[in-house]
Amino acid sequence: MRQDKNQIKFPFSAIVGQDNFKLALILNLIDPLIGGVLAIGDKGTGKTTLIRALTNLMGDEKESPFVNLPIGVSEDRLVGSIDLEQLINAKKEVVNLGLMAQAHQGVLYVDEVNLLQDYLTDILLDATASGNYYLEREGISRYFKSQFCLVGSMNPEEGSLRPQLKDRFGLSVTITTPKDVKVRQKIMKQRLAFDDDPSQFIINYKSKDESIATQIKTAKSKLLSIKIDDSIIEYCSELAIQHQVEGLRADILLIKTARAYAAYKNITEVTTKEVDSIADFVLNHRSLNTPDQQNRPQEQNHQPQESDPDTNTSKEEKATILIPENEFQKPKEINANTIQNGAYSTQSLDGNLTAIDTKKTVNQYLATDKFELKTKRKSTVLKQHHIFLIDSSGSMLKNQIIAYAKGTVNKIAEQTKTQSTQFSMVSLFDGGAQIILRNTTVLNTVETTLAEIKTGGKTNLIAGFKQIKGLCSDMDYHHVLHVITDGKLNEGSHLEDVILAFKTYCKGIHKTQIVDAEKGIVKIGVAQELAKQIHAEYEVLITGND
């Protein structure tokens, strides 16, 4: 819910810079149907501080709640749950409201939204699309409204955001570290003044925050009276077509956002000027005709051809798939009762693995007033899920190592393929990580995905392990992680941090294999040491040049 009333928040009007982010948040308060804001940018730039300061403008907490969704939230906490103690002991249907229901008519904030687990992302997608959802628990069905403004923040170095969720954010802004010395000095002075005397600092900016809140309230009352000519609608459609956006959501949002902007500026009719002022908010994360790295304007994308490939940002890899000399062993079938396969799993006398069926247990108790555990049979053999974390950084271009790395993935996939085997793939590219293939059973799809992998930049294994977390949540599968890398990490990255990231984000992995692609007379041995520290199988990539 909204932060503790005793917790002092930095005033909204006192935040230096970030004018675009401020405006995008304000426009969503004026018209919540715009659909929220995604803040993409560097760490330590005050994204979270600004979002939390938004509560100073939102008015009554009951009418406009501010709900913070933790990155490690459980499904029950997100959608709600049934109080089993009350249901069993008092036979009362008591529902604990989920965060999405609590955020109705308010703001739902997700920090590091790109790290949210996939199945929770799917739940959010459904709720934001329909504005409501059903809670289905223990034979009980409840309907909840969930019309909220979704605000998310992310650092692209820690991984990308699923396109489906990114498109659900009405607006997006890119936040970069200020380069102007005077701006940085002012930010430091503001922070010091707030830390030294928070109460006085808030008093100094109270009237400014109240003035903005009043302006928002006035704009909301005028919103529906703003005139929109057909020529403006045509102009918005032309903009959307020019940027090659998918669907019609951008067309609609250009109109809605421009109308809210006109209301905020006390303008009675939308013109092309208002549309142009907010167009980047709507189109930046949807446009298909802008460079892939538009969200990182501070990077140097024009480097000389003779530079070290380790420093190149990106290029399309044209090398064919080359099969390595390695002989990878086909994995054995894994019995579910031989691993920690989730809670409430028991072994019956006949050797079958069973799990408690909560729904049948509760229904039986309500019908007969007798408490008896009901179970359901589980398969004793787990299906295989092979996850490939493939290093496609610039250093892998040397001696066609990336081509052999692709061949490694292809060879393992062919050797492990069965009717129920699934494959997923994460690419380490340009200092980040991206899921490029998710739970496919088709070998041709694996090969097609490999052919389209981009290469360049540095190796960020930490970002890769964070992406793995959402791929290994299904307990009916035996998750095998294959890491193909030369171990040449990002500058500033340490092996200890990589090991910690693996232990934190890869708990659902049952088996790990490191394929060391490092070549050369002098080797740093990071991949080998990583395999040793995380108790992974270790194998050296054997190419045709060895």
Automatic annotation (TrEMBL):
<dbReference type="InterPro" id="IPR002035">
    <property type="entry name" value="VWF_A"/>
</dbReference>
<feature type="region of interest" description="Disordered">
    <location>
        <begin position="288"/>
        <end position="316"/>
    </location>
</feature>
<dbReference type="InterPro" id="IPR041628">
    <property type="entry name" value="ChlI/MoxR_AAA_lid"/>
</dbReference>
<dbReference type="InterPro" id="IPR036465">
    <property type="entry name" value="vWFA_dom_sf"/>
</dbReference>
<dbReference type="Pfam" id="PF17863">
    <property type="entry name" value="AAA_lid_2"/>
</dbReference>
<dbReference type="InterPro" id="IPR011704">
    <property type="entry name" value="ATPase_dyneun-rel_AAA"/>
</dbReference>
<feature type="compositionally biased region" description="Polar residues">
    <location>
        <begin position="288"/>
        <end position="312"/>
    </location>
</feature>
<feature type="domain" description="VWFA">
    <location>
        <begin position="385"/>
        <end position="546"/>
    </location>
</feature>
<dbReference type="InterPro" id="IPR003593">
    <property type="entry name" value="AAA+_ATPase"/>
</dbReference>
<dbReference type="InterPro" id="IPR052989">
    <property type="entry name" value="Mg-chelatase_DI-like"/>
</dbReference>
<dbReference type="InterPro" id="IPR027417">
    <property type="entry name" value="P-loop_NTPase"/>
</dbReference>
<dbReference type="Pfam" id="PF07728">
    <property type="entry name" value="AAA_5"/>
</dbReference>
<dbReference type="Pfam" id="PF13519">
    <property type="entry name" value="VWA_2"/>
</dbReference>
<protein>
    <submittedName>
        <fullName>AAA family ATPase</fullName>
    </submittedName>
</protein>
